[in-house]
Design a protein that fits this description.
Blueprint lengths: L2 H8 L10 H9 L9 E5 L4 H14 L4 E4 L11 E3 L2 E2 L2 H15 L9 H16 L3 E5 L14 E6 L7 H4 L3 H9 L7 E5 L4 H10 L6 E5 L4 E4 L7 E3 L11 H17 L2 H5 L1 H7 L7 E5 L2 E6 L4 H16 L8 E4 L7 H14 L4 E4 L12 H10 L5 E4 L3 H13 L6 E4 L2 H10 L22
Length: 450
């Protein structure tokens, strides 16, 4: 490992920082690279990564040189910084990281956190590549997230859920206020409608000019303006979806289409159907095959995400668009409500008559995993009658799942629970490569397993 990479790893000891001061100081020392291109800024609890990658790929396909910043990474840190779908090279990452390290040591010494450093690398990389525009996904929250420093002429807020309540607040309204704080004065703001009155008020309060604020209301299939919701609306186009993409992806594509249309990027908006065909978002509803065994990977990291994923899989199973999993590998980080998180997967296990469950502990995450003992005990207390195996090591867990599958006519495996688990498994399969982490593919490369 190079010296500058050792320095980056050491930054993890600084933990998480909830202020913008350090990022602001370092951006100034780096000559304000974040102001050299406009950005679309995306926040939310679920779907923000999917929405971001669809927007970015639609822009790239329309001829716009587009940068994409997302977090966390699955397999290697360069994935966080993509240009036209491709992670930047390790050489480029190190070059920009060294520059950040140099300015950080200028007195007064100002050290970034790991996350802040990766964001700064993205800003330098995008400026160096001369991108026309960037799509920036927030990390945690929005108000005090480093990404709020970018020059954003459009902000998007995806679905909200109770998450990270120790940092963002204990109610949906408090979480909405933190995330909606990415709103910029005089710029477009698009949010998914929420039925929580407190959250809806917090979102509207964050947008100073309601003529620039818009709701996406799935129940009405309309985009409604904040200040004239009863009359002013934009009809939602019928977006053609790949057969194995879900209502969850459709929602992200609608938000992407609406954001690009409101922004005036009409050519990019027209490329949304093509972007869907050419987008592979690793670890999110991703089918792969390993030794002829079909495996579905998904990073359902909170109760809302788990419910969406299980409902989607259930619908696909009922319509014979996806096979019923015979083995489930489950591992996650701490949950605000573990019972609510597990309920959807328990229902899927019972309805699908799944006989084998392997609980494991994702490695290399920012937070320690829930123990296999706690997971297994909770599943048993919810009435799961399937055989539950406790295998803390994810690599050993997936190999055990493959062994069970191959003994039973290669029955499908569902691996679900957290991004860190997905990252661990992709490495086990040798899919921790630049090619595997490239999100904009040819139509053949982009096919999912069906």
């Amino acid at each position: 490992m190079s010296e500058v990479r050792v320095w980056l790893q050491e930054l993890k000891t600084l933990g998480m920082r909830q202020n913008l001061e350090t990022t602001g100081v370092l951006l100034a020392r780096l000559e304000m690279p974040h102001l050299k291109f406009p950005s679309i800024h995306v926040a939310g609890s679920n779907g923000k990564g999917t929405t971001s990658v669809i927007i970015a790929n639609a822009l790239s396909l329309s001829g716009v040189n587009c940068g994409l910043f997302t977090s966390p990474h699955l397999c290697f840190v360069e994935e966080r910084v993509r240009v036209d779908g491709v992670p930047i090279s390790s050489q480029s990452f190190d070059l920009h990281l060294q520059r950040i390290r140099d300015v950080a040591q200028i007195k007064p010494v100002t050290m970034p956190t790991f996350y802040e450093a990766t964001f700064l690398v993205a800003m330098l990389a995008f400026a160096d590549a001369g991108v026309d525009r960037a799509v920036i996904e927030t990390g945690l929250g929005g108000r005090l997230d480093s990404t709020r420093m970018v020059h954003a002429d459009c902000c998007v807020l995806t679905e909200l859920a109770l998450e990270h309540t120790d940092v963002l607040g204990s109610t949906l309204g408090e979480i909405a206020a933190e995330k909606a704080a990415i709103a910029r004065p005089g710029e477009i703001f698009l949010a998914k409608w929420t039925y929580d009155n407190e959250a809806r008020k917090a979102i509207k309060d964050a947008v100073s000019d309601h003529s620039l604020g818009f709701w996406w209301r799935p129940d009405r299939a309309l985009i409604l303006r904040f200040d004239d919701a009863d009359e002013s609306h934009r009809p939602i186009p019928n977006i053609a979806m790949p057969s194995d993409w879900s209502p969850y992806h459709k929602e992200a594509s609608i938000l992407a289409h609406a954001a690009l249309t409101l922004l005036g990027c009409r050519e990019a908006a027209m490329m949304i159907p093509s972007a869907l065909l050419h987008t592979v978002w690793p670890g999110r509803v991703q089918w792969i095959e390993h030794h002829d065994v079909p495996i579905l990977l998904d990073a359902a990291h909170n109760p809302s995400g788990m419910e969406k994923m299980c409902n989607q899989l259930r619908l696909q199973m009922e319509s014979d668009e996806a096979p019923t999993p015979g083995v489930i590998v489950l591992g996650c980080t701490p949950q605000t409500d573990l019972v609510a998180f597990l309920n959807p997967i328990v229902e899927l296990i019972v309805e699908g008559e799944v006989e084998h469950i392997i609980v494991t502990e994702p490695k290399k995450g920012r937070r320690p995993a829930i123990s296999v003992t706690k997971l297994a005990n909770e599943l048993e207390s919810q009435g799961v009658s399937a055989a539950i195996e406790r295998i803390p090591d994810p690599n050993s867990a997936i190999h055990r799942a493959l062994e069970i599958s191959q003994q039973d006519a290669n029955i499908p495996i569902l691996a679900i629970g957290s991004l860190y688990l997905v990252g661990n498994l992709l490495k086990s399969f040798g899919l921790d490569t630049v090619e595997a982490m490239t999100t904009l593919r040819s139509s053949e490369d982009g096919k999912h397993w069906t």
